[in-house]
Amino acid sequence: MRAYIALGSNLGDRTGYLLLALSALSRLPKTHLLRLSPVYETDPVGPPQPLYLNLVAEVETALPPKALLQHLLDIEQALGRVRTEPLGPRTIDLDLLLYGDLVLEEEGLTLPHPRLQERAFVLVPLADLAPDLVHPRLGQRVADLLKRVEGKGVRPLVL
């Protein structure tokens, strides 16, 4: 199954945490890392905090969605993610955005990600990988969803 995972970091060595998370993703069972979007520096959502680095990874996986999510949570924990406030700063954040065209609502997992269509920091890198991908719940292309949020607060990372 094709899945898309958002990665973000705004504490410590942001680039280092993203690289560690990508390395961990590449070692997941029954999962192959296919493509990565460019990295963007983005404004935080929520309380005042440092700027984020964000990207999206496209994977092919035979893991069921709940198992994939558990692996993502395990990677976050291994990289020092502390869940104090929902929109607070973090060493790493891994969100399962889409899992094929699956629409799912169960405890602990909603697919597609419930705020995907509101977040420029997710839509910009997702559109780099799959602009014509259709949101399975909304029936709209990623490129069209991005037009609504206008990419505000999202800048290409220049090294």
TrEMBL record:
InterPro entries membership: Hppk, Hppk_sf
Glycosyltransferase listed as a keyword: no
Highest rank taxon of the organism: Bacteria
The 7,8-dihydro-6-hydroxymethylpterin-pyrophosphokinase domain, residue ranges: 4-131
EC number: 2.7.6.3
GO terms of biological process kind: folic acid biosynthetic process; tetrahydrofolate biosynthetic process
Signal peptide (UniProt feature, chain positions): none
GO MF entry, a single one: kinase activity
Pathway the protein contributes to: Cofactor biosynthesis; tetrahydrofolate biosynthesis; 2-amino-4-hydroxy-6-hydroxymethyl-7,8-dihydropteridine diphosphate from 7,8-dihydroneopterin triphosphate: step 4/4
Record bears the keyword Transferase: yes
Keywords: ATP-binding, Folate biosynthesis, Kinase, Nucleotide-binding, Transferase
Record protein name field: 2-amino-4-hydroxy-6-hydroxymethyldihydropteridine diphosphokinase
Organism annotation: Thermus oshimai JL-2
